[in-house]
Amino acid sequence: MEESINPMGDLPPVTQPTTPVVQATPPESVQPVERKSSKKLVIGILIGLGIFIALIASIFLIVGLTTKEPLQASNQFLAGFATNDAQALYSTTSTKFQNVVTSTDFETFFLKYKVLPFTEAKVTAKSIETQSSMTVATFTYSLKYNSETYEIEIEMIKQGEDWKLLSMQII
User: Fold this and answer.
1) How far apart are CA 144 and CA 134, in angstroms?
2) Of residues 13 and 130, more confidently modeled
3) Which residue, of 27, 123, 133, 155, is most buried by count of CB atoms within 10 Å of its CB?
């Protein structure tokens, strides 16, 4: 008896699919997407932008208010160079400053730099920091005099209720 091996085996007959084919709808019958969701998105973005601007403005307001008093004290110190009273100006310095700089050393510094018109100096930067219950405000000024530009950095420290000079550097 002969046997033959059919590598395809006995396959069932091929039949047509019984599920119907889905027809695509023509583009004319597609409904347009409503624009209400995009309006809500634009309104949300505008509200977020408004909150961001308000936050930035409040930061500038807070910094401006916190630096107001020490800036006035710094400006008054610079204006003190227009006087001829080095000792009166020295009395507006902090005890930390006076522990390092003697009144004689300050008077020498005063006489050297009193020719500069410090009242014409413009503030170019300001900051305020509190560390270990010590509040220090730093101001940078720019001053033009006799075709030279000077940069002045002043640090003021809160001493009791007053702001006093902690350091001054002229570059």
Assistant:
1) 33
2) 130
3) 155
